[in-house]
Write a structure and sequence with these properties.
A hairpin with a 2-residue loop joins strand 1 and strand 2. This protein has a two-stranded antiparallel sheet with strand order 1-2. By secondary structure, the chain is of the alpha+beta class. It folds into 2 domains: about 70 residues, Lsr2, dimerisation domain (Wheat Germ Agglutinin (Isolectin 2), domain 1); about 45 residues. It has 4 helices and 2 strands, in the order E-E-H-H-H-H.
Length: about 120
Amino acid sequence: MAHRVTAVLVDDLDGYSTAVETVYFALDGVAYEIDLSAEHADELRECLRPWQERGRVVPRNRRQRRSRDIRAPSSPRSMTRVDRAHAQAIRTWAVANGLRISARGKIPDAVHRAFEEAHASA
């Protein structure tokens, strides 16, 4: 029997609305991303508008350099063989179940959750 698992992106703010976009923002040198419904994305943008209008756009290369200067030096954690194998298993499962996922980069939390739920009873 074939199974089709559908991942639904849920609004991170209320936990039940369907999220339609991932919004990226940064504050105090820390970058964030949050999955939001159209309504909550509009609310966030409206709330930040007064500061956005008075702020300065920082060129991408300046942001990167500045964030390195501010943060304490740390060595990047490389993936272990087990991490890579697990990530590849999630990607293979996602593609087989009709989920859109890139071949590289961070695996979306919704895909992680769907994978874990599908394999919880196994």
